[in-house]
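User: Run a structure prediction on this.
Assistant: Running it now.
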Amino acid sequence: MTTPTTALQEQSNRYGKKIVLIGAFFFIFGFVTWINGTLIPYLRIACELEEWQAYLVTSAFYISYTIMAIPSSSILQKTGMVKGMSAGLAIMALGCIVFIPAAYMRFYPLFLLGLFITGIGLTLLQTAVNPYITLLGPAESAARRMSIMGICNKTAGILAPLIMGSIILKNSDTLLSELERLPYEQKVVRLNELSHAVIVPYCLIAALLLLIAYSIRFAHLPDIQTEPSATPDSGKQSSSRKVTKQFELGFLAIFCAVGTEVLAGDSIGNYGLYHGMKLSVAKNLTSWTMACMMCGYLFGVVAIPRIISQQRAFWFSNVLAFITTIFIVILPGIASIIALALLGFFNALLWPAIWPQALKGLKGNLLNRGSAILIMGILGGALLPPIYGGLAKYINNQYAYLVLIPVYLYLLYYSWLGVKEERIAATVNPAVQN
């Protein structure tokens, strides 16, 4: 006989297994995504690129989110979440495999194609997983659950640059001086050897992704059950317009949040080189930013909603990020680099807070569609780093971070709207707690 206590324990165990499994996916997101921070200086050297060209790594990777977000929603409606996840993992593996001929040819456009394909698979995976974790529990603690996922993501983000940097940029202190001394023919041979360094790690990543894609069918992860969306009647038009407005503003907020997160994580390596750091140190700087983001997510897990509401945490994060951006621009050398890494702490709570605010009021097919459109906002990660790289070419790498000022001003506005709505809700319903 099943007692209420036993049933509650079984339900809690199932909930825990879902959290662990989804956390594993966020770890995969992080590892594949934050390898880019090491690939940028690596490909800049191996393919002899200008700085702005190296930032096309982020463009190729993140543009796939915009192109595939809506198709991903349609695919998931037909295949279901589990099969869709398997397909996404398989596509990611294909993108990693493309790195093999790209490395043998030392052909930068083919590297970009591999990143684009990997991004397509990741888009399919994220379109399924992000709304799932958002809906897995109460809306007021959604940012807390997303923070837990962020910890998984950023743990991988810390490890990825350290692991990949030690493999593909080993002996980096002598690498640049060695290349400068070599005659042209020997330099080409050395660059080819450097290019081949990515083959083994990307083969291993592809094999792991394929293994997980096959194994996920045995994980017993249920598909998200969505209710059919009703057509709003005339009495609900005002509410519908409000939902539409906050969703549209949320899309732009995702664009800004991802843009600044990617810029802070992926440009810091080159920024270290700009300030005279050795390549052996600069290649690992992305891990500094990821470690700060990890601390930010841990704060979110502990403090939301017990100490501070997710809306207020969102607002304070943007205020402090704006101030930190000013420090990045005005502080000298290592202090400016540390400020850039600290930006990761304040960026940590942006993504988790935007999702529940933007999706509030959406149900059924509208929720699926909304999730896909928000994923398209990841386009910010494709555009902001190359814009920064272009500005750096004409002013300098430090002043180019002024591009973040309008980004954080908009995020301040959007977070203020959330705080304002929270205050109104608290006035109407005094039971709403901060």
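The chain is about 80% helix and 0% strand.
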